[in-house]
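pasting for the record
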Amino acid sequence: MVKEVRQIVRDKATLAIIFVMPIMMLFIFGYAVSTDVDQIPTVVFNQDPGPSSRYLLERFSNSGYFRLEGSAGSLAEVRSLIDSGKMRAALVIPPDYANLLQAGDAQVQLLIDGSDPLLARSALSAGGAIVQAYAVEILQEKASRAGLGMALAPPLELRTRVWFNPNLESLRFNLPGLVGVVLQNITILLTAFALVRERELGTIEQLIVTPIKPMELVLGKLIPYVVIAFIEVGLTLAVTALWFGIAIAGSITLLLSISFLFLIGALGIGLLISTVAQNQLQAMQMTFAFLLPSILLSGFIFPREAMPAPVSALGYAIPLTYFLQVLRGIIVKGVGFMYLWRETLLLGVYGLGILLLAAARFRKRLD
């Protein structure tokens, strides 16, 4: 471990990567990313089940923008589903909806998770268009029966409310995710060269003849980078909060604790690449072969709800997918561990498994 610290301190290029690249990525990506989404997971709180409400739900479902996934029994359940990230929107139909619709004074509410402003904008636009088209259709029917013109008041109104990010600021979505991307990229990139560098410098034999075990060597290589990675966490969070003004809504302690699990997994991936690659060029190629899909499939840029099911399923094999949910859940929504325990458990299992795999792979090199 002491040896690795000395090598890091002496390597000025590595130190520059550690402290300059995160800031550059924050400023470059922080102002640049945007896209669209459809098939939004939506829960229904229907307080007036009947033909009228079912017809409205069919219009939302058939639009292609909303994917109705079950129903809730209360507003508290709706909030819980949106807080946990299982649902991104909720359609609330009031009691006596059918009677109010007949009287020309019905209102339905669309609640939207604003932590992803791209998704929220799509939901706002699509929801408004669906209800407006339905209202016009009802007006035309009433006017036709009564022999009137189109001067009637709309019988149906959509009330929308965006939670967590009411102004739909892209930065509040992009920057928390960028914190995870920066941490993943830097840690994997640094540790991917840890053993390859030893091999190319001819010092790997010195490590092999020492009495330390493979797992001890892996941990010795890992610990300095864990410290560096936590410095990166503090640096990126500080820039996000102080420069961009995006405060952490939830528990910083919980965020740092889960970040530790994510960093262990990311560093383990880098070490695993280092045990497989024969030289630094191979290590670089393998690293970018992992980083590019992880950025595209994790939900950092493109919402995973808009991806085809087989492509979206690939994202479950990437730890960044779960860490992005943690970052946006804590920083933007302010949710606690009860909504993030699955992601925390998966990150812990992933980190432990990848470390054991890296140690086992290095054991084979010792034989």
